[in-house]
Design a protein that fits this description.
This protein is an alpha/beta fold and about 550 residues long. It contains 19 helices and 18 strands. The chain folds into two domains: about 325 residues, Rossmann fold, CATH 3.40.50; about 190 residues, Isoleucyl-tRNA Synthetase, Domain 1, CATH 1.10.730. Helices cover about 45% and strands about 15% of the residues. The protein has a six-stranded parallel sheet with strand order 3-2-1-12-13-7, with helices on both faces. Strands 5-4-6-8 form a four-stranded antiparallel sheet, with helices on one face. The longest helix is centred in the middle third of the chain and has 31 residues. Bound molecules: 5'-O-[(L-methionyl)-sulphamoyl]adenosine. 5'-O-[(L-methionyl)-sulphamoyl]adenosine (MSP) binds next to strand 1, helix 1, helix 7 and strand 12.
Amino acid sequence: MATFYITTPLYYVNSKPHIGHSYTQIACDTVARYLRQSGFDVFFMTGTDEHGEKIEEAAVKAGFKAGDEKRFVDTIVPQFIELWKKLGIRYDRFIRTTDAVHEATVKKVLTLLFENGKITKKIYEGWFCTPCETFWTATQAPDGICPDCRRALEKLKEENYFLKMSEYQGALVEHIRKGPLCILPEIRRNEVLSFLEKNELADLCISRPKSRLSWGIELPFDANFVTYVWFDALINYISGIGYLDDRARFDSLWPSVCHFIGKDILRHHAIYWPIMLMGLGERPPRRIFAHGWWVVGGEKMSKSKGNVVDPMAMIEKYGVEPFRYYLLRAVQFGQDGTFSEDLFVEKYNADLANDLGNLLNRTLAMVEKYVQGVIPARGEKVQDDRLKECALGIPGRMSVAFGDWDFSLALKVLWELVNAANKYIEEKAPWKLSKAGDAATLGGVMYDLVQSIGLTAVCLYPFMPATAQAIWEQLGMKTNLEDLRFRPGERGVAAWSVVPAGTKIKKGAPLFPRIEVEQSEGIQNPKSKKQNENRKHAGS
Ligand code: MSP
């Protein structure tokens, strides 16, 4: 079976997670579910980045004594795990950079590179950005401002260990130009290439003197230093799959890796990381996708700027699955997006309450009323294949969108089916068919609507797994969508007739009650608490 190894960045545990972090998780979870559904063997790894100055500072701020950083991170990590659980993130491994196997792998990598002559000791003098944990040259930051976060840089002069970078610069450009390293979207690939073409790479500082920082992995060849947090963290991608002691497992997963990251950490992944791997004699990563940022008031949402939206609060208020839907539908993956609660409510009401929710409720009410709650056979007399044809085209078009990791487009395509089904109801007017006593046509129309909704549930599953399952069950299906393999035309179920004739439907509560907004109090106040409760139960 073909394999896919999917990774998220490891999140800093200096405070609780925000929407930016949830975004990568939800996207990766959707990819993983989609690939599993399509018959791939998927290994999905996420985790936390726990060493370095940022974390040490946060520990002190939280009242922990020096040397007690591990106890501090142990209080934060469960908040990430809890949020991922709430968001329905089904990962296969959660790795922490304080895990013994990770620390041992970092030491092994350092030893190998040191023994291969790829690491040297020298004095560094230049700019340093503490929040980003990054060194900058005078050319890169002529104004003493961090090019990434726009905060003031500090001057630093100290002796450190460096990884030689320029030796691999040409090879890296080749890997990006000719493969195997594929960087998406195109704009990010060009950004990396132009950076590599315009600059000779400076050696990468990979250590911190213990006199300045002790919270890190000690260098195996010099006990006066700890490892630079980025050098440490990037190694998770191989320490988590057996690089230290299970070469066969490593070899089976590494060639299929796809790193999903935010665009702010592109250089670390597309330049430092491949060169670290080349220094070890390993192949560079296969794919890197850098998504955009969620922006609030024109600025990147970030902990340090204090403009974060709390995902827990959104979930509490509106339910998990509408939140997943909104993040993936509202903005094309790769682009920046402005997060706004009023746009969220607008999208919820339009797409989920009106289009999808109504389609399901109306159809099931009609199936109960006109065909005694049992899915009829399509019969000879359906005569109108438009809805069926529209449905049959959907999975293929969604898979093209998935090929570009364009979740928004994939959902837009799926909603063409939802809307076509709603239109079909209006056109066919089943109530008229019933009045006219045309049971054969009526049965056929019910059949087509149910199949369209069944296919919608299957295709929606990667994005909104609990909603898809709830729809599936309301259609009377007893199987678990998670176990369904679906590659129309090749294997698994066919795109049409996913719900067998004879199935008894099980109509339940409406999935997405409308959010009525009290104008006087502003958009932040959905009308009734009770309504909210229903939504949370139905949609999460
Ligand atoms: N610890 C490093 C990653 C090491 S990976 C070996 C790190 N951590 S982070 O917690 O600061 O950020 C993690 C991810 O969250 C990054 O991909 C970053 O782009 C993403 N986001 C943080 N804020 C974001 C938004 N406002 N919007 C979208 N994603 C953003 O960097």
